[in-house]
Amino acid sequence: MTDDLARAILDELRAIRSLLEPVCPASGHTGSLARADVARLKRVLPAVAGQLGSEWFGSCDAFDHPSPALQIVLKGLSPRAFGRLLRRATGVAVDGYMVERGDKLAGAVQWRIVAAVSFRGNENVSVRCTAPRDSRQSRSEACT
Amino acid sequence: MISRTIAANPKGTSVSRFLTSLVLTDGHPMDAAALAEQRCATTPHVAEALRQMMKTAVGALNTGSGLNAIQAVANEFYLLAQSTTIADRLAQRCRRGQFRTKVARELGSGAGAAWRGEGLPTPLTKTLTDLLELDYFELSTITVCSRDMFRFDPFAEQQIRDDLVMGIARKLDADLLDPANSGTAGVKPASLTNGAASVTSSGGTAANIIADWKSLLAAVTTPQDGLVAIMRRSTLNTINAILAGVGYPTSADSLFSVPVIAGSTSPQQITLVDAPTILFAYDEEIAADVATESTLEMSDAPSQSGISGSGTTAVSLMQGHLASVRTTRGIAWQAIQDNAGSPTQPGGVAYMATAY
Fold it and tell me: Highest mean pLDDT range out of A112-121, B257-266, B289-298?
């Protein structure tokens, strides 16, 4: 591979990254959620995901579920408060989990938990290029 | 934002994580609870169970959470075993009894109704019963495995679950169905097939299988209202292949319209059981304990192996970087309807050893 080609590929990758970064913010960016919400969601979302996976559910369904995991994390919440929490959390990645809102079923909004796929620029893209052994100058340029 | 769907935790995940947390912290519930809190976000009841375990040790079971998390984890283990062992799948179809409690057994034609004419007395139907009592038998298995196996990752968790459940299933199902198991007083119950009618297989052709099946049905002298066939999955597959070859419709979960309980832990035989004629008593939980430290072999050239179980009579868990999990459960069974022609032969069971 020539240096010019490597440089062209690198430019192309940078262009792709600049396009992806706005739509794939790094996980951990919890936007406008209050701290209390984030703290609660950090406990609730993994537990719901562990029990239901990415199945659609209504906020009342989670309370009716026999799982002890859900009983523990939903303690102190009402179905209505849980629904409001999920509404606030929709589309925001919290610890790698994200809430998606679906259509209503029998008057109840359906929710599901999915894994947020984060894109963190340089961590996800690495370019290895091999420069000619006899040209230290061109190697350093190619790998920047 | 880009996202992907998630699968729910497989059944038994919390059991694996509960044991893994204990093994990695050498059995200290407080440390194990802290570890589980940190590593098991999708199963928060594991940390809760370990905390409750710690409080139980100092006599404060009521944690105020309104949830018995230890029981929840134990139940999950039981449900996992229930879906795996032949004994548990059969027990769900049988008559349920209690340990060391007398149960009436029908010996006559049974209570019934009668037609009554106007102004005439209601005819009486006499019945004859005796009393049975199931003793308490405890099945205990110790599974020894490398401590490296206890990790918080899906593959290791699956391995732990499978090892524990199959350890129980192999012993339990063998003792339930092995005709040679005549039981030991106070230790283990005799198998259902011990002393039961047996049929000799006439061969492996479709005609042989059909003829043998008719012989098995004839050997079951009870009403056959809840008849169920037990065999290995490979046996059922082979029979299905043979029968399909001659155009007979086959099914993955029944044979000649009789429901099949298929499991690899069955002896190589077909067992027909009229389930309502069997009395089962069982605990709906399985106790599990872990140990990571035990006897040391004081040698500078140790030859012991925790894998092959050889080298010495005492194998050190600590020295071999091993952990052991002991599981214990109570279970007992007994046939309650004898063959009319032989009071020592269970009427609702017949079996046939097979070569397929």
Answer: B257-266
Mean pLDDT of B47-60: 74
Tell which residue, B186, B192, B157, has the closest CA to residue B172.
B192
Chain A residue numbers touching B42 (CB-CB < 8 A): 46-47, 49-51, 69
Q: What is the DSSP string of B160-180?
A: HHHHHHHHHHHHHHHHHH-TT
Report the percentage of chain B scoring pLDDT > 70: 90
Spatial neighbors of B311 by CB under 8 A, at least 6 apart, are: B302, B303, B304, B305
CA–CA dist B13, B156 (Å, integer): 10
Taking residues A16-23, what's their average pLDDT? Answer: 70
How confident is the model at residue A29, as a pLDDT? 59
Q: Kindly tell me if the per-residue pLDDT of A126 is higher than 50.
A: no
- Token pair belonging to B311: 């080298």
CA–CA separation, B286 and B77 (whole Å): 7
Question: Is the pLDDT assigned to residue A2 strictly greater than 90?
Answer: no
Q: For residues B272-303, b (16+ Cβ closer than 10 Å) or e, as one string? A: bbbbbbbbbbbbebbebebbbeeeebeeeeee
DSSP 3-state of B126: coil
Task: Check residues B106 and B12 and name the one with the higher pLDDT.
Answer: B12
CB contact under 8 A, A114 and B5: yes
Residue (of B9, B34, B10) closest to B22 by Cα position: B34
Question: For residue B325, what are its two tokens?
Answer: 């999990």
Separation of alpha carbons B269 and B263, rounded Å: 11
Q: Are the beta carbons of B22 and B36 closer than 8 angstroms?
A: no
* Unique residue bearing structure tokens 């679906």: A102
> Any idea where the domains of chain A sit in the sequence?
3-142
In a mutational test of the A interface, the residue from B15, B45, B63 whose CB has the highest number of chain A CBs within 10 Å is: B45
- Looking at beta carbons, which residues of chain A come within 8 Å of B2? 23-24, 116-117, 119
Nearest CB partner across the interface for A47, out of B3, B13, B42: B42
Q: Tell me the C-alpha distance between B105 and B79, whole Å.
A: 29
- For residue B106, the tally of other CB atoms under 10 A from its CB is 14
Sketch out chain B's domains with CATH numbers: 9-84 (no CATH), 197-281+337-353 (3.30.2320)
CB B67 within 8 A of CB B44: no
ipTM entry: 0.71
Distance (Å) from the C-alpha of residue A128 to the closest C-alpha of chain B?
26
Nearest CA distance, A8 vs chain B (angstrom): 27
User: Residue B170 — pLDDT band, cuts 50, 70, 90?
Assistant: very high
